Amino acid sequence: MACFWKVCDVADVIEGQGLPVEVDGLGIAIFNDGGQFHALLGRCPHANGSMGQGWIEDGEVVCPLHRWRFKLTTGRCTTVGGNSLHRFRCEVRGDEVWVEV
Ligand code: FES
Q: Which residue's CA lies nearest to atom 4 of ligand 1?
């Protein structure tokens, strides 16, 4: 059964840059896009690039390895159709970021 986990503090997530975190062995990438927080699967479907080391451009996350792009709001890949990143529910509670896994 899914439950929420505290993954980091709000201050840990630099706006526009990813932050890799781990929940129960699962790698997740946290992003702050102008104060909106998002949690996406931490591994790129192309070749396992670390999405937590990626960054945001125009509402999309960019994979650091080969620059595939994914919509922050849907996880859908806009570089190669049919690919996506799983999104997790993400909430800010006070100064903390929580993700449902
Ligand atoms: S591993 Fe992400 S684009 Fe290649």
A: 66
